[in-house]
Amino acid sequence: MSPVESPNRQQSSNWISATLREAAWAPLSILGFYGLAFSLRLFKLFPPLDMPVHFLGGIVITYFYRSALRHSQKLVGEIPFPVQVLFAFTCTATTAILWEFYENILDFFLGTHVVRGVQDTIVDLLMGLLGALVFSLFYRRR
After folding, report:
1. What's the CA gap between 43 and 34, in Å, rounded?
2. CA pair distance 76, 53, nearest whole angstrom
3. Which comes out higher in pLDDT, residue 82 or 5?
4. Could you report the per-residue pLDDT of 64-102, keeping only the tens digit for each?
5. Closest CA to 35 of 18, 57, 16, 13
6. Full-prediction pTM beyond 0.90?
7. Interatomic CA distance for residues 142 and 88, integer angstroms
8. Contacts 24+ apart (CB under 8 A), 19-23
9. Which residue of 19, 32, 117, 130 pairs with 68 in a disulfide if CB–CB is 3.0 to 4.6 A?
10. pLDDT at 75
11. Would you place residue 11 in the very low, low, confident or very high pLDDT band (cuts 50, 70, 90)?
12. pLDDT at residue 27, as a whole number
C-alpha cells in the first residue's frame, strides 16, 4: 500500500514548481553572469562592475521571492501587498548577506581576492538592497 499525498503536500509542490517555472531564470541568469565575469576576470579588469551586478542581483532575487509569494497565496490565502514587499525585501537582504559570506569563503579557501575590504562588503549589501527597493517600488501586481 503506497502512502497517499495530502492535499497540502500537493499544493506545496505546485506553488514551488510554479515559482521555479516562472522565476528560476532570474537568479540563474545573475549567477551565470557572475560566474562568467569571475572566470574572465572582469571584476579585476573593471572593478566598478561589481556594483551593477549586486544591484541587478537585488532586483532578480526580489523578483524570485515575490513570485514565490504570489504562487504561495493559493496555499495560504491572500497576503497583503505591504507584507509581500517586506517579506521579499527581508529575504533579499538575507540572500545578500549569505552571498557576502560566500565571497569571503572564496577568498579564504581559494585564495581569490573577491572582497576588497569592509567598505566593499557594505557597498555590495547596499547595492543589493537598493535593487530590491527599486523592484519593490516599480512592481505591479499581475
Report:
1. 9
2. 34
3. 82
4. 999 999 888 888 889 998 898 899 999 999 999 999 999
5. 57
6. no
7. 16
8. 19/64, 19/67, 19/68, 19/71, 19/72, 22/67, 22/71, 23/63, 23/64, 23/67, 23/68
9. 19
10. 84
11. low
12. 93
* Helices 81-110 and 118-138, axial angle in degrees (round to 10): 150
Q: Which three cell numbers stand for residue 125?
A: 549589501
Within 13 A of 28's CA, how many CA atoms are on the CB side? Answer: 6
Terminal C-alpha separation, the chain: 43
The grid coordinates listed for 112 are 581569490
Amino acid at position 136, single letter: S
